[in-house]
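User: Hey, my collaborator sent me this sequence without any context and asked if I could get a structure. I don't really work with proteins. Can you help?
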Amino acid sequence: MLDNTYHPTAESTCFNGKNSKYSYYLHERISTEFFQLLSGHQAFQVEPKAIMAAFKWLNNILRSQEGLDGAWVSYFHEEIKDQFATYAKGSYTIFVDAVEALGLVTVDRFYQPSINTPFLKQNGHCRRYSITEHGKRLLTSSNRQYFKKMFHDPAVKRKIQKQACENKRNHSHYSDPFLESQRDLLMNLNLVEPTWDGFVGSNHDLNLFIDIKTKLHSKLERNDADGRLWNPVVAMSKTHRTSLQYKNLSYVAEIDQRACHPTFLGLLLTQYFLGILTTVHYEGGILDNEVARWLQFTTSKEDFRFSLAQQFGWTKERVKEKLNIWINGGHVPVLDEWFAREYPALNRLLLAVPDRKQLGCLISKHYETRIFQDFELYRLAESLGLKLTYQYDGIGVFSERKEIGPELKKLVDHLTETARRLFNVQLRLKVETLV
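Assistant: No problem. I've predicted the 3D structure and written it out in C-alpha cell form, which is a compact way to encode the shape of the chain:
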C-alpha cells in the first residue's frame, strides 16, 4: 500500500532548468507551488502525469462549489475513475487519498447505493467533496499564473491556438439562428489584458477568463428545466465584463428586465397551472382582476420593490432576495401573509401548485426565454452595427462606439413590443452604459 504522508524530495523542490520535472508543466495550469506539494507524495512520484488529472478534478469540484455557494459536491465514483483512468491501472482512490492527505480536499465518505426493486425505489447517496482553504489558494494561484501566461508566453499562446483549431466543435454550426449567433460570439470573444498590479480575480472569474481564451466550449444546449442557455459571459461579474471584446467591438452596455420572475408569476399561475389543477375552482372575473392588478403593481413605473421594502422594513436588495426565495417555494411568512391578503384568489391557486420549486424555471421557460432568445432582437442589433450576448433576463451590448443612445432605444423598443405582442405585458427595462 502507498504511503499517503507527504515526503518532499530534493527533485520536487527544483523547478528551473532543463533537468526540472516541473518543465513538463511549464505550459499547463499547474503552479510551481501546486506541483511541489503533489510531486512530494509517493502516489504522484509513481505517476507524475496524474498531477494534471488531479488539478482538473479538484478545479472542477471548486467550480461546482462556487456555483452552489460553497456547498459540498457529490461525485459519482465512475466520473472520478474516468479522470484517472490511464494512471495506476485505473485505481483512482490512491490519488483521492493523496490529495486528501495533502490537505487540498475534505472527503465525506458516507455513501449509499441506489435501491430499485418492485417494492422499494430509493436514490443513492454519492460521496461528497469540499475543497479546503489551502486547496482554494493553490488552485487560484495556478489559474492566475496560467491566465497571465496566456498573454505573455508564446508557447502557451501557440498551444491554445492549436487546441482551438483542432476542436471539431469550434467548426460546427447550429441550424437554430439564436444558438448560432451565440456560437459566433464565443468564437470571436476575447479579453483585454488586465493591469496586473492590483489585479483581483477570484478562482471563479479566472476559470471563466480561461474558458473564453481557450475557446474549448461545450456544445451549446438549452437547459431542459428553464430553457436558458448558459455561457461564460452571463456567469461573469459585471466589473469584469467591461474587459471583453467581440472582434473590434467593446462591451459598452447592458439591458435587463426589472423583476422578471415576479412580473410573470400571475400569468404563469393562470395560463399554465389553472388548467391542470383540478382542485382549484376558476373564479372568473375575480382571478382575472387580480392578475391585472398584479401586473399593474409589478410593472409600475416606480419599482414595486421599494414599496414592499417600505412596508416590511427591508432594503430593496432584501426584498429581491426574499421574493426569489418565496416564488420558488421557500418559507417567507411576511410575503405569504401579504400575498394572501392582497391577492386571495391568486394565493389559493399558488397554494395548490404541487411543487413550488419549479415556478422560477417555468417562468423562464414560458416567458423570459421567448423574449430574450428572440432571434429578431439579435438580427436587429447586427443591422445597427452591434453584437449581443444573451444574459437570461437581459442582454449585453458590444459596439465600436461608446455613444449608442439611439441604438439602445431601438433595442428597448423591440423588447417592449415583443412582450406586448406575446403576453400583453409592459416590460420595465433597465439600461446601463458601462463606459
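In plain terms: Residues 11-137 form one domain. You can pass these C-alpha cells on to your collaborator as they are.
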